[in-house]
Amino acid sequence: MPDFPTARIREALLSVAPDKLGLLLRPLTDKLNLGAGGDAHGIDREMINVDRGYSIDQCGDAPIRRIKADVLSLPPELKRGSFAVIYAHHLVEHLHYHHVGDAIKAWADLLEPGGVMYLCVPDTLWAMVTAIGRKDLLSERRRMPNAVKYIDWKRANGIAYNGTDHLSIWTEESLAKVVAESGLEARIWERQLSPSANWLAWCEATVIGIKPAGAKNV
Question: Domain 4-210 is classified in which CATH homologous superfamily?
Fold first, then answer.
């Protein structure tokens, strides 16, 4: 049975980019798990796992491949254009808003042409409509995708989560915009969830970025 990261990105690709599923069969050296953390939910045995919290001992010759590094300053051993898959689950919200654009551009530069990037964050719009008891408004985002543009996300990020480990806020639309600005084709994973689905699944925004086949690294 695959680890959680591989299982999750497989589920997303089945929905938004089924032609990319074969990338998950590539060697672990072609797949990068950013901000992997140390628990079984984040680590993947079929990827290179990167986290600044790893100890030197954890990064030795072990069955699980780990690299100790900050995701905002990745080491040169992670070469440009050399990865088929990049996975970042609940990572971006831990970065300051003004760092995210450059970070995603740098990660995109690590992708080979045709490679994919998985990004998942808490969906702030979901949190807001839940707080006011109007989950029905979520259906409006599908009919009127421009509705959330009226929110000044830069201003919101200046006041939200101040002093906590969540440093930026996102929706599907705002995350997809940053992914597209990095040069990737952004596809939102519109999950079809049952009413009994885990609450975390309901509040997540997931975007798959696909590097164009003819793209050149900057």
Answer: Vaccinia Virus protein VP39 (3.40.50.150)
